Amino acid sequence: MNLDLEGGRKLATEICAMIKEKPLSELPGSPEVAFFPPFVFITEVLKASEGAADVSVGSQNIHQLEKGAYTGEVAAAMVKSCGATYTLIGHSERRAYFNEDDALLAKKVEQALNNGLTPVFCCGEVLPEREAGNHFKVVKEQIEKGLFWLEKDPFEKVVIAYEPVWAIGTGVTASPAQAQEMHAFIRQIMAEKYGKGTAESVSVLYGGSCNAQNANELFSQPDVDGGLIGGASLKAADFFSIISSF
What we know:
This protein has twelve helices and seven strands. By secondary structure, it is an alpha/beta fold. The chain has one domain (about 5-245): Alpha-Beta Barrel (TIM Barrel), CATH 3.20.20. A seven-stranded parallel β-sheet has the order 1-2-3-4-5-6-7. Helix 2 links the parallel strand 1 (about 35) and strand 2 (about 55-60). Helix 1 (about 5-20) crosses helix 12 and helix 5 (about 100-115) crosses helix 7 (about 135-145). The longest helix has 19 residues, at about 175-195.
């Protein structure tokens, strides 16, 4: 919940200008980029990104039902009709502040897929769970309840984002080894459920105080496919530096 309309438009325009000058396809990792602005900025950010190849737009959330008398809520079909192609689901802040549980998030995943949106499903442990050694159990349960009800084909359309909650907005980052360890674990449980091919095809992103200084080391880990960037995405130069870190 940052910036106003003009600020959001300016940020997207600055980033896209850098991408047009140095196309993503020419960067070593040929990364893809998706912006996740507030709902009310989606159409303007889409306009700002026109002409920037491999740039998409998504929403930060969707409602778990198709439509109805839910004043103030936004349905997946509404997001899709604005031109967005992605949506975040289960961001740690949604889980913590709005009490979104795995059963609810499974319904949101269903709505996203039914409306042609790619769900970016967020999972991760809080500090007491990490300190108690329960981080693998927590993440496995979140993924199993939120995603493993899907058949193989729709599951392959999902992106997973691992967020160590203790590293979000704190300035503390999971070490590259910690990130790799959890990403490899996520890959393992996907392989056990859907097979090795599916596990290798699904992107697993890291989100947790990733910035221009540590992105290269994080993204160099074999099972870290990219990042879910928070505060560092609010400065165009920093965000483009992260994009260029693959």
